[in-house]
Amino acid sequence: MSTDPAPSRLTQQQQARAQAASAQQQQAGHEFATVEDLLRADRAQTPPPPQLEARVRQSLARETPPRRPWWSRWWRR
Amino acid sequence: MDPLVEPEAPPASAAPPGAPADAAAEFGALYAAHAPAIYYLALRLLGDPARAEDATHDVFLRAWRHYGEFRHAASARTWLYRIALNHCRNLQQRWYDRARVPAAEAGAWEQTPDPGAGPWRVLELQELGRRIQQTLDALPAEYRELLLLVADEQLTYQQVAELTHQTADAVRGKLHRARRAFAAAFARTA
After folding, report:
1. Does the ipTM surpass 0.95?
2. Single pTM value for the model
3. Which of the 8 DSSP states describes residue B98?
4. Which of A10, B35, B68, B74 has its CA at 20 to 30 Å from residue B125's CA atom?
5. Å from B164 to nearest chain A CA?
6. What structural domains and CATH numbers belong to chain B?
7. Rounded to 5 degrees, what are φ and ψ at B64?
8. Chain-chain contact of B64 with A36 (C-beta, under 8 angstroms)
9. Under an 8 A CB cutoff, do B122 and A61 touch?
10. Cα(A31)–Cα(B118) distance, rounded to whole angstroms?
């Protein structure tokens, strides 16, 4: 059984400091320098719905394959 | 080679079976690379997730139909954005353009005091989407499009200018006013 209170007090101080830092961070929130940064952050957290890809694939499967234009076929020869 | 054999495509591919293997794989990669940007543009222009999903679906369907004519020298991102912008503009005109601030009122933002250039503080990222949507909905369509396009790091001012049918200098000038208008409207959503 430890009787030395020093490490315990140190731990408490560290915890208090960490809590204060966390509270400060929460209060400050997220900071963006420009409108564009704000929009980029929004875009990053707004991915397309997961079902969209399957939906697109199903619709494209009903389409005829795209034809290359005549100049493209000629160019590839 | 049996043409009915399903072409190999990357797992994330949206390319249809039955398409030539190279076109299918290319289009699958195109979808994977650009669908998030197209969906985001549609979402913030139309303001509704279901409509944005439908619009993104239609954009890629239209892109597939014209994929053979797409010149690979051009930027795929710009090409898809052009289709998306035209599609969203048509939808807005058809659906609920009347409910928005008409472009003629864009000058009203000139009278708004400049709330400063930032920094922008948001307490919760979850709140960000709602506030941005409210802000963009309050802006003239021209400002909305400009800000969304310029926020894409893959586009140059010149490409934004081509997509919005104006010069790069005009884009820079309007962008300054668009940022100010956004700042004023965003402050009101807090």
Report:
1. no
2. 0.74
3. G
4. B35
5. 18
6. 21-94 (1.10.1740.10), 102-188 (1.10.10)
7. -65, -40
8. no
9. no
10. 9
